[in-house]
């Protein structure tokens, strides 16, 4: 093929390149998240050792029946990482479920509010959003007890304000559309209008936001566990593993590097999925960004 032939070839449409780039982003996110999810799923079916088995010897290196070595208590590190993956996904899914349930309910109610009630709810949501999520979660956990359930509830409640404010904005925008007016004119009740017209039109943007909230929830749970406010022992949260391994990082770096790497991979993977879903579910927004 000559240079003239190359010049004569039509340029590849920019939209095609962007489409492949967006697909690659979504695929890469699914791969990264899927690898960590695989550890979590396998942990329900098989573990190399019992999570509380301390017979491996303190800070043993890789080998001798322990693929990644042991921690300072003699527990198998691979076992701890696998159970930590289970806790990370449980915390992320549980927190997002709470945030979605509370946030969507409050957001829809706030969207229908008028006058001073609308202003009051908006100000209340703004105050909750301005309040640091981790600090609010710490307060809720301290008021209850340091368990995984308390951490999930606290993180979910803290994130519900962000979801509620987004839902309020989206619902108010949808309520101005002509098809909503037509539905109301035809005698459709407000509950049926919300279920049949409002929620289906806001769910693409809502799903992307919830995917982002999942990654933030995983980080928040790890932070709470690092501070001793997450799942108690022998639950091997990645945050607790990081806290326990910081004193022995120079002699056994795998104890800190392994959970840290898995945490980063999961958060990056989920954020890539959210970015890919945004492009797939919001073609109009995709065109504006590119």
Q: Features of this protein?
A:
single chain; mainly alpha; MetI-like fold; 11 helices; elongated; disordered C terminus
Order of helices and strands: HHHHHHHHHHH
Q: How many β strands by DSSP?
A: 0
The CATH class of the domain at 83-283, by name, is: Mainly Alpha
Q: Please identify which CATH superfamily of the domain at 83-283 we are dealing with.
A: MetI-like
Characterize this entry briefly.
The protein has 290 residues and is mainly alpha-helical. Helix content is 75%, strand content 0%.
Q: Can you describe this structure?
A:
With 290 residues, this protein is mainly α. It has a domain at 83-283: MetI-like (MetI-like fold, Orthogonal Bundle), CATH 1.10.3720. It contains 11 helices and no strands. The radius of gyration is 24 Å and the shape is elongated. The relative contact order is 0.15.
Task: Describe the secondary structure blueprint for this structure.
Blueprint: H1 3-8, H2 14-45, H3 77-112, H4 115-130, H5 133-143, H6 148-175, H7 178-185, H8 190-226, H9 238-245, H10 254-281, H11 283-289
Helix pairs in contact: 2-3, 2-10, 3-6, 3-8, 3-10, 4-6, 5-6, 6-8, 7-8, 8-9, 8-10, 9-10
């Amino acid at each position: 093929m000559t240079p003239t032939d190359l010049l004569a070839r039509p340029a590849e449409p920019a939209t095609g390149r962007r489409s492949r780039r967006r697909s690659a982003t979504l695929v890469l996110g699914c791969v990264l998240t899927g690898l960590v999810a695989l550890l979590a799923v396998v942990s329900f079916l098989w573990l190399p050792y019992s999570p509380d088995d301390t017979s491996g010897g303190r800070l043993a290196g890789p080998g001798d029946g322990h693929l990644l070595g042991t921690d300072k208590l003699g527990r198998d590190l691979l076992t701890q990482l696998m159970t930590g993956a289970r806790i990370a996904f449980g915390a992320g899914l549980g927190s997002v479920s709470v945030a979605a349930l509370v946030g969507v309910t409050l957001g829809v109610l706030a969207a229908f509010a008028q006058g001073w009630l609308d202003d009051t709810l908006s100000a209340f949501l703004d105050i909750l959003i301005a309040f640091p999520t981790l600090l609010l979660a710490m307060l809720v956990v301290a008021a209850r007890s340091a368990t995984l359930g308390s951490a999930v509830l606290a993180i979910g409640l803290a994130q519900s304000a962000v979801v509620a404010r987004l839902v309020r904005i989206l619902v108010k925008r949808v309520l101005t559309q002509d098809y909503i007016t037509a539905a109301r004119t035809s005698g459709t009740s407000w509950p049926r209008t919300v279920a049949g017209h409002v929620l289906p039109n806001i769910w693409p943007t809502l799903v992307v936001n919830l995917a982002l909230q999942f990654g933030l929830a995983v980080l928040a749970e790890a932070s709470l566990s690092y501070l001793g406010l997450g799942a108690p022992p022998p639950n091997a949260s990645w945050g607790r593993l990081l806290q326990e391994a910081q004193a022995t990082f120079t002699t056994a770096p795998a104890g800190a590097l392994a959970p840290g790497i898995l945490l980063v991979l999961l958060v990056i993977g989920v954020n890539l999925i959210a970015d890919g879903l945004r492009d797939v579910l919001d073609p109009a927004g995709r065109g504006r960004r590119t």
